[in-house]
Specification:
Layout lengths: L2 E8 L4 E4 L2 E2 L4 H11 L3 E5 H6 L9 E5 L10 E4 L2 H6 L6 E6 L1 H7 L5 E7 L8 E2 L8 E9 L9 E8 L3
Parallel strand pairs: 1-7, 1-8, 4-5, 4-7, 5-6
Antiparallel strand pairs: 2-3, 2-9, 8-11, 10-11
Protein name: Dihydrofolate reductase
Family: Belongs to the dihydrofolate reductase family.
Catalytic activity: (6S)-5,6,7,8-tetrahydrofolate + NADP(+) = 7,8-dihydrofolate + NADPH + H(+)
C-alpha cells in the first residue's frame, strides 16, 4: 500500500479556507508544502484544483477527484472516487492529500500521517474546516515552532502526527 499523508494549514478552530482560498499567506508553509510534495503524488478535489493559481502543480503527479465524468483538469488525472485514485497508485508511491475538506474527511481513515501547519491565530472568516484530529487515533511525532516575523504575520508550528498502532 502507498504511504498516505494528509497536508494542510489549520487555524486555531481547524479552519482551512474561505471562498476557495487559503486563510493565511505563510511563505514558509508554502515552501514546506513544495518540498514535501515535489516528486510525489498529490490528490485533491476539483475545487482545490481550480483554486491553484497556475493549474496543475509541476514535478508532481496531480490527481483530481470529481464525480462528474466530463470534468477536465489540464495536467491532472481525474478519478471518480478516492478509492479509485488510490488503486491507481503504485506501492512505492508517496501520496499527499491536499484538500479540500470533504477529501480530507474521506482520506483520514486511510492516512498514515498528518503534516499540519498549526497557525496561532483565528481567521476572521472561514467556511471550510479540517476534520477532528482525535488524540485516540493520532499521536504527535514532531513539532517545529516558528515565531511571527516580517513575512509571517502570526506564529505557527509544523506539526507531524502519526497514526497510533491500536
Amino acid at each position: 500500500m502507498s504511504k498516505i499523508s494528509i497536508i494542510a494549514a489549520v487555524d486555531q478552530r481547524m479552519a482551512i479556507g474561505f471562498q476557495n482560498k487559503l486563510l493565511f499567506w505563510l511563505p514558509n508553509d508554502l515552501k514546506r508544502f513544495k518540498s514535501l510534495t515535489t516528486g510525489n503524488t498529490i490528490i485533491m478535489g476539483r475545487k482545490t484544483f481550480e483554486s491553484l493559481p497556475k493549474g496543475a502543480l509541476p514535478n508532481r503527479r496531480n490527481v483530481v477527484l470529481s464525480s462528474n465524468p466530463a470534468t477536465e483538469c489540464p495536467g491532472a488525472e481525474v478519478f471518480p472516487s478516492l478509492e479509485a485514485a488510490l488503486q491507481s497508485c503504485r506501492e512505492d508511491e508517496h501520496v499527499y492529500i491536499i484538500g479540500g475538506a470533504s477529501i480530507y474527511r474521506q482520506a483520514l481513515p486511510f492516512a498514515d500521517e498528518l503534516c499540519l501547519t498549526e497557525i496561532d491565530s483565528t481567521a476572521p472568516e472561514a467556511d471550510v474546516y479540517f476534520p477532528e484530529v482525535s488524540p485516540e487515533i493520532w499521536q504527535e511525532k514532531s513539532r517545529e515552532a516558528h515565531p511571527a516575523d516580517e513575512k509571517h504575520l502570526c506564529s505557527y508550528a509544523f506539526v507531524d502526527y502519526v497514526k497510533k498502532q491500536l
